[in-house]
Fold:
Amino acid sequence: MKAKLLFSSAVLGIALLMSGCVNNLTNLTPPNLPQNSSGIYTITSKVKITETNYVLGSEKCSIVIDGIARPMVVSNYSKGIYTYDYAIPSGQNQARYYYVLEYDVRNRGVITHREVKSPLQTLYLANRYVLNMETDRGIVGSKISILGRGFARNDTVVIGGVTAPTEFVASNVLTFTVPAIPANQDYFVELHTATGDLPVGKFHVDPGILKVSPASLNLISGQKAIIVFSSEFDAPEGGLLIDVLTNVPESVVMPPVVIPAGQRSVSVKVQGGKPGVGQINLAAPGFNPMVIPVSVTQ
Structure:
């Protein structure tokens, strides 16, 4: 009974070792490949044999497509990488395949041939895809280009969950304007299309510079003045709202501040109230905060 148990444990150990070999055959080919003019696509796998007693140089890798085994070529640039250039037949937009790894092992002078198969894989050709963004960082209001293929006029760019103003330039070029979102953060960018969403990449919003003129206010009670607020880029859709807070609310009388959509500046009338000394704090999404010193005399 004990001998039978030991035998069963040994068989189980060998089985686990053999099953672990499957993980050594990795598919490196993306499931979606951009279409190209030649119709030839490189399929890549990575092989790593962990058994210490395998016969060095006996390994070979092949790919089975449409039931036909085709030998793969060892890469000259990376160890354990195998490639195969497959010409997809005209009119076909996908291919199903799997890999076969073969190698020999030597146990006490006896050589045994082994074979490992990967799970079935599927490759799709994409006629709509994103190649890259013009840049991966910028400030609110800046216009960013996206290069790719198969863009449509109703496609929209979404950054950090916020829909950005999107312009269709051509089937391979879109531009979007960075919306008014907080600066000093990374955001995930997606392209929303009628047939699904496509990842674009990561975008970092840097703080913009909000300009204010004059830089300080010195008023007499009842006196009126003009403050001009401006940014480097056109205000986004809906306008750029500037939050205005002051620690002397009875000394400064001014309306809400919004730079209208598509414009870069706005002029606001300010009137001196009760005498006092303090400051006006300005904040807007995507911009560094600013402080305007205020002095109102009788």
